Structure to design on (394 residues):
C-alpha cells in the first residue's frame, strides 16, 4: 500500500470537520477530509461508532447557532445556504415553580439571539460549499499510529502520512482511543422531533426546566424543533406512543402557553453525557468538536463551541510551518482552553441546577429567574455568554 504525504487529515465530515475543511482552504496546507458516510447517505445513516444518536433515519435535531457562529459561517460562505430561522426572544421558565424571564435580541444589541437549523441541513449545507481541499465520502479512518492514518473506502485501504491528523469524528471516539478522558452519564435522554402548535412561533424559543430535564422548543421554519430531555425510561415510553398520545404528554409537560400541539414528525432519541479529553496524548494529532468535548444540549453550546475550535485551529495553522509539531499543538490547546472550560462548566452547572426537584433549589431557581427578569445587566451577561462563548468575537 502506498502512503501519501499530506499536511492535514481531517477524520470526520460532521458539521465541525466540514467547517474545518472550509476554514483551512487558504492556509497553504494540503488538506484531506475523510467522512465515513457515503455522499448519498449524507447524515441519514450513522456509522456504528462515533455518533451520539440512538435513533432512526435522518437527523432532525434542531441546532441553535449563536450569532458568533453566524459570523464564522458567513466567512466560510456557508451562511446563505443554511436558511436558518432567527430566534428573536427566548422565554425561560420552570415547571411547577415561580419565576420566569425573557431574553430579547435587543438586550444584547444583536439582530437575533441565535438561528435554528436541523443537523442534516447544517452538515449537508457545509459539505455543499465548494472547497479546494479533497473530500472523501464512504471513507472511514480505521487506524492511526501517530504517523500513518489508514482509511477504508469501497475500493480498499488507503494510507496517508499527515503532518497533523485532526479527529472530528464525534462523541464515541474519546473512549475508543483509550486516552485519558472525563465522562459523566447524566442519566437523561433527549427526545427530538419537529412539532407544530396552534399558534405561530413568531421567532420565539422556549426553554422550560422540569425536574427530569429541560424541554426546549426552537423555531425552525414554520415548525418548532423539540428537544425534550427526560429520564431514559420515560424517553423510551414517549418514543413508543402514537402521535396523539405523545402530543398530549407534551402539552401536559409544556403547559398552555402555546395552545394545543397539533402535529409531530418522526421522533429520535439521544442519550446525554458530558465527555471531554483531558489532553491530547497521541502525537501529531488534535481533536475538535464532539471528539474533544461532548456537552449536554441544555444551553445549545456543542456545535457552537466546536465551530470555534475549527475556526481557531485554521487561524493558527495559517502561520504554522509544522501544524503537527508539539509546539503548534500546545499553542492551539492553550488558545482553546478558556472557552472550552467555560462552556463545559456553564453547561454542566445548568444541568445540575435545573434538573432537580429539591424544594430549596426550586425556590433558588425561581428567585434567579425573577432576578434575571428584573436586572437587565444579568440578562445581558447570560445572553452574551450564549451568543459569544467565553472568548471574544472571531
Ligand atoms: C439533542 C441535541 C441537541 C443539540 N442542540 C445543539 C444546539 O442547539 N446548538 C449546538 O451548538 N449544539 C447542539 N448539539 C450538539 C451538536 O449536535 C454537536 O456538538 C455537533 O453535532 C458536533 O459536531 P461534530 O462534527 O464534532 O461531531 P458529529 O456531529 O458527531 O459528526 C462526526 C462525523 O464523523 C464521522 N465519523 C465518525 N467516525 C469516523 C471515522 N472513523 N472516519 C471518518 N468519519 C467518521 C461521522 O459519520 C460524522 O459525520 C445538540 C446535540 C444534541 C444531541
Amino acid at each position: 500500500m502506498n502512503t501519501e504525504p499530506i499536511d492535514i487529515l481531517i477524520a470526520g465530515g460532521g458539521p465541525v470537520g466540514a467547517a474545518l475543511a472550509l476554514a483551512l482552504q487558504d492556509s497553504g496546507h494540503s488538506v484531506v477530509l475523510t467522512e465515513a458516510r457515503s455522499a448519498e447517505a449524507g447524515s441519514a445513516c450513522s456509522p456504528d461508532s462515533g455518533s451520539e444518536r440512538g435513533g432512526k433515519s435522518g437527523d432532525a435535531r434542531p441546532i441553535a447557532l449563536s450569532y458568533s457562529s453566524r459570523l464564522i459561517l458567513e466567512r466560510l460562505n456557508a451562511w446563505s445556504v443554511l436558511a436558518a430561522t432567527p430566534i428573536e426572544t427566548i422565554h425561560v421558565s420552570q415547571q411547577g415553580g415561580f419565576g420566569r424571564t425573557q431574553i430579547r435580541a435587543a438586550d444584547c444589541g444583536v439582530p437575533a439571539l441565535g438561528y435554528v437549523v436541523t443537523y442534516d441541513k447544517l452538515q449537508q449545507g457545509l459539505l455543499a460549499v465548494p472547497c479546494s481541499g479533497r473530500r472523501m465520502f464512504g471513507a472511514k479512518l480505521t487506524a492511526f499510529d501517530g504517523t500513518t492514518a489508514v482509511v477504508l473506502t469501497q475500493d480498499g485501504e488507503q494510507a496517508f502520512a499527515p503532518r497533523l491528523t485532526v479527529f472530528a469524528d464525534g462523541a464515541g471516539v474519546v473512549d475508543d482511543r483509550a486516552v485519558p478522558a472525563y465522562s459523566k452519564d447524566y442519566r437523561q435522554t433527549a427526545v427530538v422531533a419537529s412539532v407544530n402548535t396552534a399558534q405561530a412561533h413568531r421567532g420565539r424559543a422556549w426553554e422550560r426546566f422540569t425536574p427530569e430535564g429541560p424541554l426546549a422548543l426552537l423555531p425552525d421554519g414554520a415548525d418548532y424543533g423539540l428537544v425534550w430531555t427526560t429520564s431514559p425510561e420515560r424517553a423510551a415510553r414517549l418514543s413508543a406512543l402514537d402521535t396523539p398520545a405523545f402530543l398530549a404528554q407534551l402539552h401536559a409537560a409544556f403547559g398552555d402557553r402555546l395552545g394545543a400541539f397539533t402535529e409531530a414528525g418522526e421522533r429520535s432519541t439521544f442519550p446525554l453525557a458530558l465527555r471531554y479529553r483531558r489532553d491530547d496524548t497521541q502525537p501529531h494529532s488534535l481533536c475538535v468538536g464532539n471528539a474533544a468535548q461532548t456537552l449536554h444540549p441544555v444551553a445549545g453550546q456543542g456545535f457552537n463551541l466546536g465551530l470555534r475550535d475549527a475556526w481557531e485551529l485554521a487561524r493558527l495553522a495559517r502561520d504554522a510551518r509544522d501544524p503537527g509539531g508539539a509546539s503548534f499543538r500546545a499553542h492551539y490547546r492553550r488558545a482553546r482552553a478558556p472557552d472550552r472550560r467555560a462552556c463545559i462548566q456553564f453547561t454542566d452547572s445548568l444541568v445540575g441546577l435545573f434538573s432537580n426537584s429539591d424544594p430549596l433549589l426550586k425556590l433558588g431557581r425561581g428567585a434567579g429567574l425573577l432576578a434575571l427578569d428584573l436586572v437587565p445587566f444579568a440578562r445581558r451577561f447570560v445572553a452574551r455568554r450564549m451568543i459569544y462563548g467565553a472568548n471574544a468575537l472571531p
